[in-house]
Amino acid sequence: MSRVAGARSVGWEAFRLLALLSFAVFFAVPLLSMLDFSTRVVGGNGRTGQAWKNLIADETIRSSIVTSLLLALFTVVLMLVLLTPTMIWVRLRVPSASRLVEFLCLLPLTVPPLVIVVGISNVYAWVTYFLGDSALTLTFAYVVLVLPYAYRALDAALASIDVVTLSEAARSLGAGWSTVIARVVLPNIWAGVTSAAFISVALVLGEYTFASLLNFTTLPTVLALLGKSDAPTSVAGSLAALVLGAVLLLLLSFVGRRDRSSKGA
Amino acid sequence: MSGRTARLAPWLGLTPFIGYLLVFLVVPTVTVIAGAFAEDGRPSLVNIRALFEASDLRLLWSSVLLSATSAVAGAVLGGFLAYLVVTRPATSLFRRVVTAVSGVLAQFGGVPLAFAFTAALTSTGVVTLAVRDAIGLDIYGSGWLYGLRGLILVYTYFQIPLMVIVFLPALEGIRPQWREAAVNLGASTPQYWRQVAGPMLLPGFLGSMLLLFANAFAAYATAAVLVSQGAPILPLAIRGALTSEVVLGQQNRAYALAFEMVVVVAVVMVGYVLLVRRTSRWLR
Lengths: 265, 284
Prior knowledge:
The structure holds 2 protein chains of 2 kinds. Chain A is mainly alpha-helical. Chain A has helices spanning 2-39, 50-57, 59-92, 98-110, 113-119, 121-131, 138-159, 163-172, 177-188, 190-206, 209-213, 219-229, 231-264. Chain A starts with a helix and ends with a helix. In chain B, strands 1-2 form a two-stranded antiparallel sheet. In chain B, strand 1 and strand 2 form a beta hairpin. The longest helix of chain B is centred in the first third of the chain and has 33 residues, at 54-86. The two termini of chain B are 44 Å apart. Chains A and B meet through helix 1, helix 3, helix 4, helix 5 and helix 7 of A and helix 2, helix 4, helix 5, helix 6 and helix 8 of B.
């Protein structure tokens, strides 16, 4: 019996390894092609780092990187300011609104970004009227875009603590509502806040639909435009963006783990 | 009266949030729906009727074909990959790397993925040249990469990782005890899969497939960068109607096409929610 199981599991392990290897090859080939494509010398042999140097040297690319990073920062701040107090408030004072807030937060999954872009031109006419024609105004649209993901992260964190008991304890010791939210609840859901921030940064850095159709210049739109004139540089930039995104998400997975272990302790 | 005011006062705390979403989410959505049923500022069914003309139906069909093919391929292959991955502990570096890479390719891909396949498979692409030098075969052909078949390949590339992300939790909910119980009652491995794990996972699997369909149907960036001219699928037709400078009066056509997209995605997402709710009853 055990010998049969052993033989089956050796065969299974070999099959498993082979299958994993095939997946690895399928996913690695396009990515390694990017590395090769971005470093080869056109019409010759050898390697060149010119495309990668362009990423830093080229003024347009550099300023678009700054724009995208600023957008990520503003989106995270506005998202947190808007969403965190609202979600805590719903749990504390208006539980009957929780379905409404959840519905609104998850709505962007059903209304795709492309559809929002089509309908948002009037709203953006007013935004540009009040705030000027800066790419940073994309922040407003991006907050909506990251909402479902940020909501899930924050909701999971809030579900893991007893918000009502915490706030009653703080209130009975004389704390006001703002103290309860900022100094009692917030520190307890910090892991959820961090993970909401990480996923928002990753989404904003890669966003193309809004930026390109509203004619704003961000890193993805610059890379897309470069694809027509200087393919190696756009490929290098794309690979750099993917690697950066992977590192961000890997860090995020460690934030999540710290949350779990601290809860166990 | 004062009691009612006191009860309603906490709702005021939601004003900033709800106000914001009214302006940046509800107003655009309503604009699209209202615009789809109007022409020259008056209510009209012209643009909705146009959706049922042969050319627009063909557009919808290509989009459905692309989404369905990549969703089925992504769900089957991604579900299998998730099963291969789930046996490792969640805190292992292997799992972390797989999840992080999946997250990037699934949600962050967009423009970079279009360039990845450009670098690999265009006429001077790395893979194209390598295959030509090795066995003399021209896999670039007549530019299939920029047509529906190319899009199916590229979409599958980001659908598989998305399936890994959404299906891993369902797989993790399957407890080893259930298998032990089945084996103790004399079940063989195929029996266990057919009568215990299979029925348990099926709603989640089908639900994930629907999510993948909606994801592909609404995707824009990758296709927009890969296919710079023409409109083989619905999202690119919306781009065409939005940015058209040749034909005037395309705004309402863009509304109608966007409305069509919302309807399809909404129907699919409702199916997804219903199926996932069925699964979550068991997998806690």
